[in-house]
Amino acid sequence: MITNFFEIFVLSIIQGVSEFLPISSAAHLIVASNIYEFKNQSLLIDISLHLGSLLAIVFYFKKDIFDFKRNINLFYKIAVGTIPLILIGYFLYYTGIIHQLRNIKVIAWATLFFGILIYIADKNKFLKTIDSHFNIKSVLIIGFFQVLALIPGVSRSGITITAGRILGFDRVDSTKI
């Protein structure tokens, strides 16, 4: 476990700043750990930092999240969209592949490839609105795109925005997804 306050501080700042931008927070955590030669930076630390981000999101949106009657359809879509991530994430963890993805070469190639993909997707003409076209098919497609965020160098928010743009949603709606 991390016992050094400096390591915790640096990784927490990186996570806090990078989580809500379309950049890979996991990649930045790994790169910073390599630069500063943190010996104990692991997948468990990454997950703990991401859970902290999740708690911050839940706290910030608590009024919307806990308005179950108004948001039941949204909760259903979130649950369906999370299924691919859980299943494939479990497989990657169980087989050990997830640990092999945590290296600088994978991060560099993933960042380059998905940077190009988000650029191309952003050129897509948006024709759909989230209110009328955000259905289960769209949710599952976005869910499968989010699986790619398990690769360090692929931003979860960036890949979600990319998926929304590929599906024809405008930038604002793609960000809301």
TrEMBL record:
It comes from marine metagenome. It is found in: Cell membrane. The chain crosses the membrane at residues 6-31, 43-62, 74-94, 106-122, 134-155. It is a multi-pass membrane protein. Its main location: membrane. Keywords: Cell membrane, Hydrolase, Membrane, Transmembrane, Transmembrane helix. One of its GO terms (cellular component) is plasma membrane. GO terms for molecular function: undecaprenyl-diphosphatase activity. It catalyses: di-trans,octa-cis-undecaprenyl diphosphate + H2O = di-trans,octa-cis-undecaprenyl phosphate + phosphate + H(+). This is Undecaprenyl-diphosphatase.
